Amino acid sequence: MAQVTRAALPDAAGKSRAVEAMFDRIAPRYDALNRALTFRMDVRWRRITVVELGLAAPARVLDLACGTGDLCGELARAGHEPVGADFSIGMLRAAHVDAPYVRADAMHLPFPDGAFAGITCGFGLRNFADLEPVAHECARVLPAGGRLAMLEISEPVSPLVRAGHNVWFRHVVPFVGGLVSDRDAYRYLPASTAYLPSIPDLFALLTRAGFGELSRRQLGFGAAQLVTGTRR
After folding, report:
1. Rounded distance, CA 30 to CA 174, Å?
2. Do the Cβ atoms of 59 and 33 come closer than 8 Å?
3. What is residue 81's DSSP assignment?
4. Continuous segment of H or E residues that includes residue 63
5. Single pTM value for the model
6. Which end of the chain is flanked by fewer CB atoms within 10 Å, N or C?
7. Taking the domains of the chain in order of start, what are their residue ranges?
8. Is 12-156+186-231 a CATH 3.40.50.150 domain?
């Protein structure tokens, strides 16, 4: 099985297996570390994601790369009907929100066309092996007018804030994560920003998949970003 190492990110061929195994390992402490390492800002970011999804409740919403169900919980509190999908069985077993969960590959979703009114995805984009088929699958399971809201990490614009963020994200996070959970995993998570396309490239990819009305909002002084769009 491919391993995530300090020296290199997994290549395309081994990425799915390596990332799945990594999330299986870190699932038991994942939520607690998220709260501590983001000073609970991740909770607010998920609430904003659900608001920006912009759907009237109740709506059936797929939470892609759902992990332990944090976004499913926010969707349920907003009156929606969430369905969680993730390819890590360890994360699904650690889910703490009462919702239907499906173990699934985002590049081959086991749902019929137009099955959902909306899709959310929290911090999952950089973990997919190939974003192009994921975007097309998202478009397939949404009807015209369906909404997409993707929360992901980002880099602050301000040089001063960016410098502090880089020290925290690329040095403190791996150190603390290594002490409490899994050293290789928390080295991978900051390094995995290398997988993220630029915003113009991401918008172009989503446009090719059938999305329009694309927008981007930075959160947490630029530490996170929220990309939204509408199925054409």
Report:
1. 13
2. no
3. E
4. strand 60-64
5. 0.92
6. N
7. 12-156+186-231
8. yes
